[in-house]
Structure formats: structure tokens, C-alpha cells
Amino acid sequence: MQVSKKIVVLGHFGVGKTSLIRRFVEDSFSDNYKVSIGVHITKKVVEVSPEEEVSLILWDLEGTDDLTTIRDAYLLGTHGVVFVFDVTRPSTFQALNADLDIVRSKISKTPLLVVGNKVDLVLKEDLETLFTKNNIETNFLTSAKTGNAVNDLFLHLAKLLH
Amino acid sequence: MLDQYQKEYATQNVQFILIDEKGTILETDQAFLKLETNSSIFDVHAFFYTFESIKDTLENALLFSCVHIHFKDEDYVTDIRFVKKKEGYLIIITDYTSHYTEYQAIAQTRNESIINGELVAIKNAELEERENFKNSFIRNFSHELRNPLTSIISITKILSDTALTNQQQDMVTFLQQSNANLKQLLDDILSISMISSGRLKLRENIFSLSQLFDLLRFTYKTRALDNNIEFAVNVDKKIVDLVEGDRLRLFQVLTNLLDNAFKYTQTGSIRLDIQLNQKRANRLNLRFEIVDTGVGISVENQTAIFESFSQLSGEQNSDAPRGTGLGLSIVKGLLNLMDSEIKVISNVGEGSSFYFDLTLKQPLATTSKTSIITPRKKKDKKAKFRTDKKFRILLAEDDINVQTVLFKSLLDTNYFYIDLVSDGALVMEKLINEEYDLLLIDINLPNVTGDQVARLIRDFPFKNIKSIPIIGITAYSYEDDFKAFKKSGMNAVLSKPFEHEELLSTMAKYLK
């Protein structure tokens, strides 16, 4: 039996939310940055066990540096949240913990995964320093460009929600 | 009539769909989405799965703005409203594609501009960090080299004062030249570091151009004679004598360029020409040109020669002695500071012409002679001390080599009794328990630094301690370091490596 789970993907603009979803759904990537406005919704069915599938309804929300402005309607019925930041741009993670508090205040009791994207652009040791310095804890470090950990991220969430 | 227009226009962009609780389409118009009744709304687009989660809590109406719908190869950007009705649920979809497309273009420009700005700032911060690291490295490197160099210079001096055979004297002379070269290299590295870190500040003073050119003539005349090269300094007669600018840095630029010319010219001539380009109000613009008949530089190397540590592997240094590769880089940096730019015209085998245009101020009023900077003449006189008494000196230095050579060289003069400490914390104790005529103190002492000790001394309540002359010795070489050390209460500060005579003459000033 197939169940549907609504996943909201949010974060600051230009962090690669759309690219992550495109990599997951279409297994493709484009270097051209196209600003997303409003919300794009796509669906992908994933197998969480040999007999079970989950239909992930992925809501790709317009990026914003002020998360309080996210439209509440977009968040209704959310089963899981993916918060994405760009490891190369400090402005997208400097206030990460405050941003996460805002998200949690809007969608409480919902699993939330923190994802640092564009890891292909930085050295691993620099990342460690960066996270320690900024007191950041992540669940996944991804690269939509190379595909690194993208499927793992969504599959992990699907299993978590199943 | 209006009803008809309304139908004609409004209905094109607004679609009404009525569905039941299971999402089956009961009724729909065909405004822009061509839908079939009895089909499932969930098959239209994944967005409509949201109906499952809102239907139970939907009281009146709920609006979703700016929702992208892809249906039958068409993309729409819509506002979608769910309204609860008796018969089921009404979905009103308004197509705002053109409106949102305009908004997207604006957002695209804005976001790209913000991201680009951030990336430039990050890049700049990275460059600044690298530059700071480099400067800090150079500073520490220079600092660490100055202590051993001080020992070498002092030991060489002590050695040169002993009875030597001719062969030994030759070797000591070679040592002295090598020491001088090494010291020059350290000073050059420091200049580069100060220029690139922005710590080098220009100091404008009124000075005599003719005196500056005479000094250059005097300095390079002997060298030209030794090398059998013609040398001339030609000054445009229209140029006034007194100008305002940084004499020291102009001198440094010209000597670096002349040194470079001498290094790469084996035969022929070297010329320094100074021409008046223009004179406006109280500003003179002068063309300085150094022309040589040396080995020349190929076009592809004419930019590289101004980069730090660029010793060309080809023509420029084929037979010439190796240098640091810093001279021209210093010239470039100093001239940039002076709003000027070094340029070169050169042909391999024919020679080079290095030139720059520099604006100097012409003082408005005739200034009294006292404020005019004139080059300092080296004093030949040796430092004089009283012979009827020996002075008691406290030497605080932790570097064992520097300590040894200073101790020995001072003791050998027979003017002093020397006590030694190697820890800043012990200086005050010694000063309280013994009487000294002068404190010679290294800045970088363990536990309590030299400048901290100086402050303690100057704040001390007893006059005999409070007023003791303090001479700081330091391997730090930045001008602002010097200022800070002097501010701490030191009478004078000497930069390592220093000549023995320089130390003695400084000490003589405070020992009466």
C-alpha cells in the first residue's frame, strides 16, 4: 500500500533547494540559477521496504532570508521538513539556530532535517571548522551537483515518516 | 453588456472545479485546464494531494498563492482557493502566470545581485586573510632572523677588532658584506610586507631636490667608476629646488631603480633624467627616468619583474649577481602609494628605461631652513664616555647568543660593569636592590615584556629607579611597534641587528 507524505523544503534563497529536488526526482542538475517564486510541487515514489512504497510530495518553497514570511498555508499538513543552507555562503547559516526555531514554531512536532548543500565547493576540513565555529549541527551534507547524499537524504526521511 | 465582457475576459483566467470528499471532479468549466468530470483531482497535479490534509479542518476558504501547476505540457502560475460548499468543495484556480513571471524576473535580478555581492565579500575576506597570514608570517620570520643576525654582526665586529692576518681580514670583510646583504634582504622583505599590509604611511616634508640628486650622484659615482660605466644625473633647469613630498620613499624608489640598473649593466652607461612635465598651481609633475644600456628585458617578462621575488630565469640575471627580486616590487608598491606608476620600455640586448611621473607639491611660502629635511650625514666620531668612572648597566636579554655578544662587546670597551638577567620579572628586583646607570632591555622577554617593565619603572615611586635611562632592543621592526615601545617610557629603541657603534652612541647620549 502506498502512502503520501508531504515534505517541505525550505531555506534562504540560492541555497540549492530546487536543485536538490531536481537531482532527486529527475537525476539532473543545471548550473543556471533560476529564482523560485511561490511553490513548486513534485512527487516521487520511493521504496522504503520490499513491499512498501511512500509517495513523497515535495514542496519546494521560495527561498527567503526572513523565514517568518513563509505563507502558513504552504505548511499545512506537512509531514517532514528539510531545511537547506549553502555551505559556501555564511549568510545562509549564520543564524541557523534562530532560523530553525522559527521553522519549529510554525511546524511543531514534525521531523526536521538540516542539510548543508554545495559541499562539492569546499574542503572537508574547512567544513568541520566552519560548523564548529558557527555551532552548527547538520543531518546531511549534500551536493546537488554531484548527487552526493541526495538520495540518502530523501530516503532517510521517507523511512522516518513511514 | 458588462456581463458579457466579464465572461469573455475574467473566465479565461479563472477556473471553477467542484469536487467531492474523495477528490472526484463533479463539475468543472474548461477555462484553461481541460479536465474531465468523474476523474480524480489528484491526477491533475501533485499539489492537490494537499486536499487530503486540509479537507477535515477547512472551515470556509483557504488560499494558496503562487502555486506552479504543470498540466498537459503547459506551465501555469496560479492562486488556488479551496472553499467548502454544501455540495462538496469548490476549487477556484486563477491563472496569474504573466503577473508572477514579471515578479520572478525582478526577484531573479535582486537575488543574483545579493548573492554576487556576498560571494565578492567572501572572496575579499579570503584574500585579506591570506594577505594577513603572509604579513604575519613575514613579520615573525623577520623577527626570528634578527636575533641570530645581531649575534653574527656583533661577533664579526669583535672579530674585526682583533689582530688578523691579511687572509683572515679578507674573510672578515666578506662576512661583513654578507651581513650587510642579509640585513638589506630583511629590510626589503619588511618593506614589502608593510606596503602590502597598508602599514607604510607616507610622510610629507619640504626637502631640497638638488640635495637629493647630489646624494645620488655621490652614491653611484664610485660604483660607476669601479664598473667602468658612465653615470649621469640630468636635471631639467626649470625644476624648482624645494618641494614637498616623502623624500625618504622617493630616495628609496630611485636607489632601488639605480641598483637594478647597475646590477644588469656590464658596459655602457646609466642615466637618471628628471624632467618637468607640467606645473599647475602649487603642484609639479616630474618625469623620473632611469636609462641603462644593460641586458634588457623581454616583453613577456616586463610585468613579472615587478612582482615580489621575481628573479627572471632568462636574460636579466644571466651573468648578474643574484638579488632578492624585491627591489622593483618595492618600487611598484611605493609609487602606488604616491599615486604614481612605474613603467618600463626595454629591448633585450639594448637596455632598459624605467620611468614614472610623480606629482610633488611646491611649498607656497618660503619656509624657514629649519623645517627643511636634509639627509643625515653619518657621524664618524666614536661614542665618547667619561673615563673617570665605569657605568653600571643592567642588560635584560633572554637570547643566549645575543646576550653573550652584547655582554662581551660592551665589556670589551672598558666603560661598563654589566649585570645580566634573562627574565622580565627579575628586572624590577635587580633595580630595587642594585643601582644602575642604564637599563638595556630586550622587548620580547619572558614573563614580563620589556615595554611592560618600562611602564612599571616610569610609574615607580622612587626617583632613582623612575628616572633610569631605558634603551629597548627589539627584533620587531614596524614603525608603530617602535612608537608603542617609546610610549611605554623607553628613551630609545634599537632595531636588531644594529651596529656596535650605533649601540654605544645611543648609550652615550644617556650616560653622563
Automatic annotation (TrEMBL), chain A:
Q: Which domain of life is it from?
A: Bacteria
Assigned keywords, A-Z: GTP-binding, Nucleotide-binding
Q: Which InterPro entries match?
A: P-loop_NTPase, Rab, Small_GTP-bd, Small_GTPase
**Which parts form a coiled-coil structure per UniProt?**
none
Xref: SUPFAM superfamilies: P-loop containing nucleoside triphosphate hydrolases
Pfam families, per the entry: Ras
Q: Which CDD domains match?
A: Rab
User: Is GTP-binding there in the keyword field?
Assistant: yes
SMART domains attached here? RAB (SM00175), RAS (SM00173), RHO (SM00174)
Molecular function GO labels? GTP binding; GTPase activity
What PROSITE patterns does this protein map onto? RAB, RAS
Q: What is this protein called?
A: Small GTP-binding protein domain-containing protein
**UniProt source species:** Cellulophaga baltica
The beginning of the lineage is: Bacteria, Pseudomonadati, Bacteroidota, Flavobacteriia, Flavobacteriales
TrEMBL record, chain B:
* All copies of domain Histidine kinase, residue ranges: 140-362
Keyword Nucleotide-binding listed: no
Q: Which residues carry this modification: 4-aspartylphosphate?
A: D442
Instruction: Spell out the InterPro entries in the cross-references.
Output: CheY-like_superfamily (IPR011006), HATPase_C_sf (IPR036890), HATPase_dom (IPR003594), His_kinase_dom (IPR005467), HisK_dim/P_dom (IPR003661), HisK_dim/P_sf (IPR036097), Sig_transdc_His_kin-like_C (IPR004358), Sig_transdc_resp-reg_receiver (IPR001789)
GO MF term list: phosphorelay sensor kinase activity
- Protein name from the UniProt record: histidine kinase
Task: Report if keyword Transferase is assigned.
Answer: yes
What are the EC numbers?
2.7.13.3
Instruction: Show the CDD domains listed in the entry.
Output: HisKA, REC_hyHK_CKI1_RcsC-like
Main enzyme class: transferase
PANTHER family attached here? HYBRID SIGNAL TRANSDUCTION HISTIDINE KINASE J
Q: What PROSITE patterns does the entry give? A: HIS_KIN, RESPONSE_REGULATORY
Q: Response regulatory domain: from which residue to which, for each copy?
A: 392-511
Q: Give UniProt keywords alphabetically.
A: Kinase, Phosphoprotein, Transferase, Two-component regulatory system
Catalytic reactions of this protein = ATP + protein L-histidine = ADP + protein N-phospho-L-histidine
